[in-house]
Write a structure and sequence with these properties.
3 helices, Biopolymer transporter Tol, globular, 106 residues, three-stranded antiparallel β-sheet, single chain, 3 strands
Length: 106
C-alpha cells in the first residue's frame, strides 16, 4: 500500500482530499504495529456489535478505537506539542490499557 501524502510539516496526512492527523512517527515500529493491530480489531468489533445490535459491546469497541487512536497520536493533545517523555508515556499507557482489555476479552 502506498504511503499517503503528508502535509509539509508532517503533522497530517491527506486522504481523498481530507486532512487527518498523522500517527506519531516516534512510536517504535513494533509498538506502532501492535497498536494498529489492536485498532483494526476494535474497528472489526464495532462492526460486529452494530450487526448484533449489542450497545454494550459497541461502546466497549468504540472505547478501544479511541484508546488506540489516542495512543497512536491521532487524537488528544497533538504529538508535536508533547515532549519525548510525554509521547512515550502516551503510547505506552495506551498499549498497556489495550492489551489488558484484549486479554480480558479473549
Amino acid at each position: 500500500m502506498a504511503e499517503p501524502e503528508h502535509t509539509s510539516d508532517g503533522h497530517f496526512v491527506i486522504i481523498n482530499g481530507r486532512r487527518w492527523r498523522a500517527t506519531d512517527p516516534e512510536i517504535p515500529p513494533e509498538q506502532a504495529a501492535r497498536l494498529r493491530a489492536l485498532l483494526m480489531a476494535a474497528r472489526r468489533d464495532v462492526g460486529a456489535a452494530l450487526r448484533a445490535q449489542d450497545a454494550e459491546a459497541e461502546r466497549d469497541a468504540r472505547g478501544r478505537v479511541h484508546l488506540a487512536k489516542t495512543a497512536l497520536g491521532e487524537r488528544g493533545d497533538p504529538w508535536w506539542e508533547q515532549t519525548t517523555s510525554q509521547r512515550r508515556q502516551r503510547w505506552q499507557n495506551g498499549l498497556d490499557a489495550l492489551e489488558h482489555r484484549d486479554t480480558r476479552r479473549g
